[in-house]
Amino acid sequence: MTEARRQLVLQAIVEDYVSSREPVGSKALIERHNLKVSSATVRNDMAVLEEEGLITAPHASAGRIPTEKGYRYFVDEITSPRPLTAAEKRAIHRLLGSSDSMEEVYAQTVRLLSQLTHQAAVLQYPVTPVNTIRHIELVPLAETQITVIVISDSGRVLQKIATVPAYTDEQLTSLKTALLKKLSHQPLSSLQGMASLEGFEPADLASEVLKALGHFAEAEQSSKLLISGTAYLAQATSDFSSSIAPILDALEEQVTMLHLLNEMAEDARGFAVRIGTENEPTELAETSIVTSTYGSEHPTRLGVIGPTRMDYLTTTSAVRGVARYLSKILGS
To answer: Are strands 225-228 and 55-56 parallel, antiparallel or unpaired?
Structure first.
């Protein structure tokens, strides 16, 4: 019972702080949440939560605020996304169901998600891996540099200069043969995430070439990222210790954002959440990102980004709900 009560206390602190942006004290918790215990009991629970690193005192007041660890515990152990309300469903149906083209559907989706959550919303355009690899070439430039070239079945030529360990011509030829054997006629997306080439030596040479190849897969997926609602970030400047300009720059750096989104794997509840310093690059260390996938054949991501002081219940519910509705449209 004690653990359950402390969860209720943490939940109340998170909800009150998200709502008010003010540190939360024991008296306010009892008055607002009908905890049916004494102030001394609540203060003891708050002391335990503070010892566990879930809440902290921002200054010498009696109030407490959630920490990153507290938000993470709240999201993982307490948050249970609710179904969309009837009003939210009507808004989604009205805006998305009346769109004349898929371009308009995507644009309306990202705007709607921003309006529902009062956060900046992002939507990754779906990518169909139609380009397959026809040829790979490794051209020596200098002792530790080569040009990595990929030619797709459509005739598209991709090239990148890679810095590699010292190599011999024989090693380069052998590596090209091994890559063609493994990747020929595979989609460009298969280049992403490959860290090693089993059985090839020297492994460090293969690793650096594979990193270069991985950039081609990212470029294939970075054709478009829709963003809406950055004004909400401007309205939340007091939640950030400094200017929001680096956050906006990270949003505009599409390859960086797409790489981050692609790393977020949703859980059994249908969404993924990264909080604060869990995010890379460091410009996003004071933000939280909530995403979900849409589509079925080639799942793609949409989500929101905002301060760690976020209404996680509303946000996760909206992101998951909008993603599911968009999937239904795409499947029809």
So the answer is: unpaired
Per-residue pLDDT of 166-224, as tens digits, reads 999 999 999 999 999 999 988 877 777 777 888 889 999 999 999 888 887 766 655 57
Angle of helix 169-183 relative to helix 203-221, nearest 10 degrees, comes to 50
Which amino acid makes up residue 149? I
pTM assigned to the model: 0.73
Q: Which domains does the chain show, CATH number per domain?
A: 2-78 (1.10.10.10), 86-127+224-331 (3.30.450.40), 133-221 (3.30.390)
- Each residue's pLDDT tens digit, 199-211: 889 999 999 999 8
Which residue is associated with the tokens 């260390």? 285
Contact 126, 298 (CB under 8 A): yes
Q: Which pairs with CB-CB distance under 8 Å and at least 24 residues apart come from 168-173?
A: 169/140, 171/202, 171/205, 172/138, 172/140, 172/146
In the block, residue with structure tokens 């810095």: 163
- State how far the alpha carbon of 65 is from the alpha carbons of 13, 45, 59, 61, 71, in Å: 7, 14, 10, 11, 10
